[in-house]
Amino acid sequence: MIRVTETLMEKGGIAAGNRDTGYYAHVPLSRRLISRALRWMLRNVLKQPIDDSQCGLKAFDNSGKELFLKTTIDRFLFDLEFLMMAGNRIHVSPVPVELRPGVVFSPVNWRVLATESGNFLKLLLRQYIH
Predict the structure, then answer these.
(1) Which of 59, 87, 92, 130 makes a 20 to 30 Å CA pair with 47?
(2) From CA 117, how far away is CA 119, in angstroms rounded?
(3) What does the pLDDT look like over 2-29, one tens digit per residue?
(4) Cα 103–Cα 18–Cα 49 angle in degrees, nearest 5
């Protein structure tokens, strides 16, 4: 948490966790594949500067708070919506994270994945329509 606090104090805006390739060494294959696909789409389709929207670690100052309160997605992709809304308006700093030993992952819920695919499509359309 110290690195996140230091990042916000130095630059302000939003600090977003960023998982490196070592993180995925102990992650189930299905989650690894989903993460790789989403990260590829964030970089190459949505052209986002931060390609790890689903890390879970987010911290922000008051400008980030105001933006966060305007998000509309109420499932897993709210992080992506938040970072896309930040765009060039609020600085986003990646903060490296590591997987704690012994973490047990739940199975991927394919219904949730289907719902989130619809949310991704909404964000994609919003990106290219606006």
Answers:
(1) 59
(2) 5
(3) 565 665 567 778 999 999 888 888 889 9
(4) 150
Judge whether residue 126 has pLDDT over 70. Answer: yes
Amino acid at 79: D
Distance from C-alpha of 120 to C-alpha of 19, rounded to nearest angstrom = 20
Domain of 73, in residue numbers: 2-129
pTM, entire model: 0.83
Domain count, the chain: 1
Average pLDDT along the chain: 87
Q: Are 19 and 97 in contact (CB under 8 A)?
A: yes
Q: Which residue bears the tokens 């606090």?
A: 5
Distance CA 13, CA 7 (A): 9
Tokens encoding 30: 């299905």
Three-state secondary structure call for residue 58 = strand
Can you read off the two tokens belonging to residue 8?
Answer: 């916000």
